[in-house]
Design a protein that fits this description.
InterPro entries: GHMP_kinase_C_dom (IPR013750), GHMP_kinase_C_sf (IPR036554), GHMP_kinase_N_dom (IPR006204), Mevalonate/galactokinase (IPR006206), Ribosomal_Su5_D2-typ_SF (IPR020568), Ribsml_uS5_D2-typ_fold_subgr (IPR014721)
CATH class of the domain at 7-80 and 91-205: Alpha Beta
Number of helices: 12
Pfam families: GHMP_kinases_C, GHMP_kinases_N
Largest sheet: 8 strands, mixed
Strand content: 15-25%
GO molecular function: ATP binding; galacturonokinase activity; metal ion binding
Protein name: Galacturonokinase
Radius of gyration: 21 Å
Domain GHMP kinase C-terminal: 302-379
Shape: globular
Amino acid sequence: MAGRSPEEVRVVVSPYRICPLGAHIDHQGGTVSAMTINRGILLGFIPSGDTKVVLRSGQFGGEVRFRIDEVQYPRPIRKKDENHATNSQKLQEDCNWGNFARGAVYALQSRGNSITQGIIGYISGSEGFDSSGLSSSAAVGVAYLLALESANSLTISPTENIEYDRLIENEYFGLRNGILDQSAILLSSHGCLMCMNCKTKEHKLICPTKLQKSFKILVAFSGLRNALTNNPGYNRRVAECQEAATFLLKASGNDKMEPFLCNVEPEAYEMYKGKLEPILAKRAGHYFSENARVMKGLEAWASGNLEEFGKLISASGLSSIQNYECGCEPLIQLYKILLRAPGVFGARFSGAGFRGCCIAFVDADLAAEAASFVREEYQKAQPELAAQINPNSDVMICEGGDAARLI
């Protein structure tokens, strides 16, 4: 593409992430856990030497061209696309996949960084992981940030890039998601569980003293590429959480605090939860129970107790269905099949469960057997959807990954 030598090509690795515990509470300032897997985005690029940006994609057609001296304006997604913030394939298709690069330029320039040089690049995700629900939108945004920063000799810390990717998703695309995805992608370390307090932005890496058993990560795909749901979407659930917080803070005499559930003391929640409207009670119930599961999960992980860790993951999946009211029939079926698979410690669907995949922690010695079991059972439960999945990538056996980086 650039007419330059291969030795000049730089490559950004930006991994996909999984969230074992801490689902849907990051936007309320909760504590979350995450790790990356050894699949993700590769962005090969060369600094363009001028202001032009030229991009091609392994997943999407056409060539994107723009100049970094053009003013970038926010491009809020349409209401019908709000099913989930990590609905990345649909987001990229509907919003023009090159807008993620424009969003990265917007984020850097809007905070005063000097961007004088563009890139010529080719971006591609791991085969079979399209529409996976493993935050490929955040991985893409991070990849463009790292490439543009490298081309312009900018030294930006991982925590700063978390904020820049938040700007891409919150300001540029108008989504109301939190910072879990980009935090996991930028802060993870192989073999460790990343834990972040989304209220204070403090994070730590928890490395187990010794795991009771070695494990693999199963990623089982549903075949759903378009969200099968009539629910009001991701942003509505965020608003419901804030409505619950507003009520609980007012009831406890703290109505001057920002309406986030992290500002509600657990004692105040217990005292006034019975007065919440039913839907708001469910959203608050998920937040406080999930926060508690994260705390227990961190202890289980640190001690290497994968069985206890897995039970908490499965309980998180159940609360996402019952209290946060996510999921659709195929993903819920897939979740239940994983729970029955040999060697599985715990499972949940990734993201909101309207499309994409389920993830599970599984005994390494039984991973292949579990994958075969899930494949066969899901074909029985959803033959039409199963037929749409590449048989070579319907259930993938993965390992933990590392943080996004330039190689």
